[in-house]
Design brief:
This protein is α/β, with parallel strands linked by helices and 507 residues long. It contains ten helices and 22 strands. α3 packs parallel to α5 and α8 packs parallel to α9. Bound molecules: alpha-L-arabinofuranose. Pfam families: Alpha-L-AF_C, ASD1_dom.
Amino acid sequence: MATFTSIPDGEKPSISVHPANKIAKINDNIYGGFTEHMGRCIYGGIYDPGNPLSDENGFRKDVIEAFQELKVPVVRYPGGNFVATYDWRDGIGPRDQRPARPELAWIGTETNEFGTDEFMKWCEVVGTEPYLCLNFGTGTLAEALGWLEYCNSDRDSYYANLRRKNGREKPYNVKYWALGNECWGPWQVEQMTKEDYAKKAWQWAKALKLLDPTITLILCGETGTSSWDYYVLNKCVKWSVHGLSGDTTKSFIDMHSIHIYTADNEHLPNATAPRAAERAIQMTSALIDLARIENKVPETVPRPTICFDEWNVWDPVRAPGEEGAEEKYTLSDALAVAVFLNGFIRQAKDMGMANIAQSVNVISPLMTSKDGLIKQTIWWPLLLFSKYMRGHTIAINVKSPEYTGRTNPSWIRGTIETPYLDACAVAGEDGWLNLAVTNVSEERDFEVDLSGLKADKVEVHTVTGEHVQVTNTAEDQQVGIQESEWDGKGTYTFPKHSFTLLRWKAI
Ligand code: AHR
């Protein structure tokens, strides 16, 4: 457990770390990415043929290296909202025969130059797993089954043979499949009621699992805090009572997806906004339990985990989707990203996957130009988490003063605390212990009692900048990682507006 005690100003903050108390195994997939046919994410992002920075497939090598540095385990594709009018069959086969189509999510034209086989190839080059989202807008179940067959089947059947004809003998074995994207949203082509969605998701799930029982199916939730989440979970969990073809150790629905973007123009509401995401995880977890209890689901039927498959800082007014959503991230946003990730680690027991939205150019840590790559402020905490915060969440107790001002959303206040020092800790499989601390205060350095640490020598990685509004540009990298060492004794001072990762070898 991570416990938090709010203390008055003037009292010394403290953090105690309890490596022997392992809370949960962290699923590496919480460091997942997301690439949508939107703005410059695919075209000009991961795929930029003719650019000297690209390989023979047209894939940007600098982007591939960044994904590898980040060790991104899984990447969601092809949307997002884009998927609601996407026909996967347009994006396969000889390029000169692929049709260009109107695209209705971001109001553009999709050339289909990049499609399923290109994405699979790109995943193989990067060393990541694909996660495909099915079209619940204009798409039919027959098309979805065709896509699954194309990707995963080794039968002598039409779509499996089409894949072979297109140059790929072996199935891709795509494990993760989403049952639509944000089907509740008024912006969706074929927005649905929760009743219609639950029925459709269930029927599709049944057919998809009949074709390939090994896949992991992800239900389309909302924010985890809505009646949509309650309803679709309750119905689909209920219909899972008898398991998969009578086998109650297998389920039709494996994960429940939620999405939250946060943003505020003022620093503290911005940096504390991702506390809503942690509360949403807790609420979704409760809804999963409730669905199982209300429907008397046998314990043997696996409990769905949470797939937080879109999260990040994004203000769609500041960076409209139709204009490519190229957010310029500040240090304040980097601290918000660290608070999101702290929450994922603390709630690891429920987290099956999380995907930062998105991974390149569109609301992204990475920005390409014709001649290089910019690592935005939010890249740096993400990199430290993805590199080091793997293994088990371990117990900590934090005493810190609390921010008590306005929050965004306002319901954070009264449902979850907003400490100035937001922390989590991880025991790695390599014997290293990691303590991540985000000091969201704009003004105060905090001297923190860490006397129980039991460390000889501590590696310190600090992400900060001159003030909370600094950004990174091609010419000027204001935010990066500063590395130093600490003797691990007594008090450590966490500087104002910083993210700090302390790492030491367990003794
Ligand atoms: O990530 C950008 C968009 O945000 C996605 O397409 C959609 O699912 C969400 O509304």
